[in-house]
Amino acid sequence: MSQQATIKRYLLVLEKVKRGFYPSRQDLIDYLNDQGLKCSTRTFQRILESIRNEFGVEIKYNSHKQGYYIDQELSDDFEPFIRLLEMSQSANTIIETLSEGKDAMQFIHFDSSSLMQGIHYLKPLLRAIRDSLQIKIQYSYFYKEEERSFILNPEFLKEYMNRWYVVGHVDYTEGERVYALDRIKSVELLSDTFTKKLGAVGNYFDDIIGVNFSGEEVKKVVLSFSPHQGNYIRTLPLHHSQEIIVDNKDEFRISIRVKPNFELKQRIQMYGDQVKVIEPELF
């Protein structure tokens, strides 16, 4: 089984189970076969075991519903796992398209090649995070116009707006440090280990938009969008806590519960006169 086919099997099974209709084993096997991915009962069982053992996502059988479901309480890494599978599948699609020849390039436009800078550091950084290894990085700051080398204890990788960041702590300072991979000039894995301090990655980013930690408490933010802009906010929520308060021909109003930070203000400003901040007053 090729790696590409394996990823596609995982993604299709998770997408079908995620819909919440409790598909049976035979439903899922038939679904994979209909997609051109051969699947037997034994293969299906291996898929479930791999998703559970390798990625920590629990797909369980409900005897009352006679079908499968995702146990969200036991699957803390479900959303990041789905995101990685989707990214991998998208990359495979691009690779398949490019293999058709240079003529395919006339139909593809990339937003910016600069966003690809630094992604080759993902593999060594992930190893350092997994094994709790300190790293020595050389970093170029925007605001200082200089490069600096220092030791970082890396704990998370974070993707936001198509840019990757490494989040960690430095022994001689308090709190977290966030560094964009496209500003990193070099990474050296060291033999020294460290003790993680920042907790679970999911909990750490749950209450913010982006990567900057403002130190503020979680607040209720109420935003009123034009009906037209509301169509986009409805399908692409600003935050997982988003709740719709008003949805009519005059406005699309939502609330989110976040720690206000630079990225939130930046996102709001992007909408210009299509949005109005209702709450908090001094935001």
TrEMBL record:
Report the superkingdom from the record: Bacteria
Q: One Pfam family of this protein, by short name?
A: WYL
Q: Does the keyword Membrane apply?
A: no
A GO molecular-function annotation: DNA binding
Query: Per its UniProt record, what InterPro entries does this chain match?
Result: CBASS_pafABC_assoc_protein, WCX_dom, WYL_dom
Q: Does the keyword DNA-binding apply?
A: yes
Print the keywords alphabetically.
DNA-binding
* All copies of domain WYL, residue ranges: 121-189
- Please list the residue ranges annotated as the WCX domain: 220-281
Could you tell me what this protein is called? Putative DNA-binding transcriptional regulator YafY
In which organism is this protein found?
Marinifilum flexuosum
